[in-house]
Amino acid sequence: MLLQRHVTSLGSTCSVAQKNELLDRRRKLEARITTYENRISVIIKLDDDTQWSISDIDPHVAESSDDLLEHDSDEWLIPERERITLPSALAAGEIERLSLESIAIIEAELRKGQVTDSLEGLRLALGEKSLCFQTQVRNANSQRTTHRAWDNVHRFDAEARKCRATYRKAQGALQRLSIDPEYVATLHDITDDDLKVAGDLTDERRFGQRSDTLPWFWRFGDAVDSGGLRMQECTYFHWSCAVRLIHL
């Protein structure tokens, strides 16, 4: 998925150096995929009748890869668009037909961990973004420091979007696996508006003047109720920022 995002960032044209770097990264990814497929073929036995689910590749990624192919006559490897052999990649009913229920359960547990990690990363990135607004953008006193502050804001925003992309991949896989429908029902979509942090959180003087609710993922997990939902959300927000700052 990281390589998909890198291809998207290159656009329809790129330099020779960028093409060489991309080709090198694709070759390395292709080698990793080949190693994985050789190992998983011992565990997951497929046949000629195996049906696959519809690919969930981002259409913008596919379009960017097609643009690179169109503007270059050399043979390009596109491993980031290859389907990986996993239970979640199979069409409905194939897991039962191929008796892969036990493996599907293992993948579901790994995907749940991926969800937890991606949402944690998302909260931390948004916390950093908010903190950057509060401490850097507002206190910038020159054009240089303003540019630097906004660069940091964009960097944290990009990290949040990367975490959201990872979450969406895991969410889609869990939906296709249909292992734990009650858990899947707790996983909601994350919109662009959800990536914005309300002013009530970035400025303590504005409490209650804007939206008094946070996106669902701020309440996702095993957070302890500390005097109400609002207090729980704010406590988790500031704790996430503090933990991140400790490691700087």
Write up what this structure looks like.
The protein has 248 residues and is mostly helical. Helix content is 61%, strand content 0%. It contains nine helices and no strands. The protein has helices spanning 2-10, 16-43, 59-70, 94-97, 101-137, 143-177, 181-184, 199-202, 229-246. It starts with a helix and ends with a helix.
Write down the overall mean pLDDT.
Answer: 78
Question: How do the helices and strands follow one another from N- to C-terminus?
Answer: HHHHHHHHH
Low-confidence stretches: 59-75, 223-228, 230-248
How far apart lie the N and C ends? Answer: 27 Å
Shape: flat
Note the total helix count.
9
The class by helix and strand makeup works out as: mainly alpha
Question: Topology of this structure?
Answer:
Elements: H1 2-10, H2 16-43, H3 59-70, H4 94-97, H5 101-137, H6 143-177, H7 181-184, H8 199-202, H9 229-246
Could you name the key traits of this structure?
single chain, 248 residues, mainly alpha, 0% strand, flat
Give a concise summary.
61% of the residues lie in helices and 0% in strands.
